[in-house]
Structure to design on (503 residues):
């Protein structure tokens, strides 16, 4: 029998796991274990002495809702860094700290798993690297979501009950009123403006004219003319919050009950004048709806390269053109002549097809160069983490100082002086952090990545494509009557010649 010699494996260097931590806490939380500063300190200390993990950064959102990822800027920064390959593992206290929306939670976890990144939820002891845990994660995140929905539902039920029995007091007050001990009270000076607005409107003045006449915004004029509160009545529940996540405040167009409470406060105008104003508004609305509206992707995109003015669209018979507003007012103000809309469209077709054919030679090298420059700046990551730790320390000192002051342990004079010093330090640290986290390059990279994706997936075009135009063109500059420049999302621009049609 052959003699077998076992050759031991070589000692391989331990792979370092690039770890990030995510924390979220409400600004009014009284639970020290969940406090913003405590979570930052906890994860920093947890990984400080680790031999197989390094803390890449601490991502923390403070004092904002967790029901929508869009309202959590540091969560978005975390996901962005994961997509860039900067992170291997994420630590977070619990599912409810990570997200209270099941759909967004699972979408984020699945995307991270596809990127090879695991998430560990400490409270639930869930490690997403184990594929069998996704069902458990769904269950926990659903619990968190239902808790958020239940809290919101209870709050809304309380408000609705007060609306039904007429005891609801809105937090905002209409123009022309002030809040008094017994509810809304008339502000005489502003009430005169309200009365004048209704009188002028009923005598034929437009909303724009009234806005200029009384020095108030046109939005305020529209608000005044449509607000029933000036009759002394209050219509409640004109807006409502949706029942499911993500919560949205939407206008009530009959989907929910509304409550008309009569005589809730003193009137500024008569109900007869208010009704006449509503009928006139409806009449004008019908006239406006009767006009044809044409979707135009070029609108607010074309600028004059000579005087900088925005171009406007003009229709003359069967011909549509764009003209510099200054030139249209007087040729002495700007020499650039009008250009047919079809000429912009033909120029875009030529540009798009050229980029499609030569994307690898034109756009991709720009993207790679910008990516290299961004990579050079990644060395600042340790500085960012250090500043975040300093910010957490300053906030924790402020918290402890406030506790000592509330217990009478320190003198008020010392408390005031020390608080001012901590506030100054905190402002300086936050300014340094913001300057280091300038996301301009990241935005350019994202936009260039999207541009490359559009070009790679598209076919050559033979006609003007509104969707493709809107997805890649940020601005058009008219350099002359025969040359225009397309500024694309991602900070790149290209000149195109246009063929002037015979006049």
């Amino acid at each position: 029998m052959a003699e077998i010699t076992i050759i031991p494996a070589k000692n391989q260097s331990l792979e370092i796991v690039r770890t990030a931590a995510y924390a979220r806490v409400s600004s009014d939380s009284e639970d020290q274990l969940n406090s913003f500063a405590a979570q930052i300190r906890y994860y920093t200390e947890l990984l400080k002495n680790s031999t197989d993990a390094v803390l890449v950064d601490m991502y923390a959102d403070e004092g904002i809702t967790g029901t929508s990822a869009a309202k959590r800027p540091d969560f978005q920064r975390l996901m962005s860094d994961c997509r860039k390959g900067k992170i291997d593992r994420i630590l977070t206290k619990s599912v409810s700290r990570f997200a209270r929306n099941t759909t967004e939670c699972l979408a984020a976890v699945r995307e991270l798993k596809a990127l090879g990144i695991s998430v560990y939820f400490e409270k639930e002891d869930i490690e997403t690297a184990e594929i069998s845990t996704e069902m458990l994660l769904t269950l926990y995140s659903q619990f968190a979501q239902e808790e958020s929905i239940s809290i919101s539902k209870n709050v809304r039920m309380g408000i609705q009950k007060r609306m039904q029995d007429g005891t609801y007091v809105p937090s905002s007050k209409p123009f022309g009123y002030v809040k008094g001990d017994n509810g809304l009270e008339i502000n005489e000076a502003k009430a005169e403006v309200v009365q004048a607005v209704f009188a002028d409107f009923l005598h034929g003045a437009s909303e724009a004219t009234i806005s200029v006449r009384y020095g108030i915004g046109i939005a305020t004029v529209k608000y005044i003319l449509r607000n029933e509160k000036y009759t002394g009545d209050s219509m409640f529940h004109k807006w409502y919050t949706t029942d499911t996540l993500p919560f949205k405040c939407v206008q009530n167009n009959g989907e929910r009950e509304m409550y008309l409470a009569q005589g809730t406060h003193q009137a500024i105008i008569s109900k007869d004048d208010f009704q006449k104003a509503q009928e006139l508004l409806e009449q004008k609305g019908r006239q406006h709806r009767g006009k044809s509206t044409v979707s135009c992707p070029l609108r607010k995109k074309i600028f004059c390269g000579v005087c900088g003015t925005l171009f406007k669209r003009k229709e003359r018979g069967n011909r549509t053109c764009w003209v510099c507003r200054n030139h249209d007012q007087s040729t002495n103000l700007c020499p650039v002549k009008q250009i047919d809309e079809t000429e912009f469209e033909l120029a875009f077709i030529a540009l798009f097809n050229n980029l499609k054919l030569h994307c690898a030679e034109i756009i991709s090298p720009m993207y790679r160069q910008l990516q290299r420059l961004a990579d050079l700046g990644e060395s600042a990551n340790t500085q960012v983490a250090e500043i975040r730790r300093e910010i957490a320390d300053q906030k924790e000192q402020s918290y402890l100082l406030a506790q000592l002051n509330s217990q009478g342990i320190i003198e008020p004079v010392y408390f005031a002086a020390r608080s001012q010093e901590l506030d100054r330090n905190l402002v300086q640290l936050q300014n340094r952090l913001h300057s280091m986290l300038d996301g301009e390059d990241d935005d350019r990279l994202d936009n260039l990545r999207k541009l490359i994706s559009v070009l790679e997936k598209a076919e050559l075009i033979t006609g003007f494509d509104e969707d493709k135009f809107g997805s890649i063109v940020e601005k058009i500059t008219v350099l002359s009557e025969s040359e225009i420049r397309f500024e694309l999302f991602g900070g790149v621009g290209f000149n195109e010649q246009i063929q002037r049609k015979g006049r």
User: Anything to note?
Assistant: The first strand starts at residue 17 and ends at 25. Residues 294-503 form one domain.
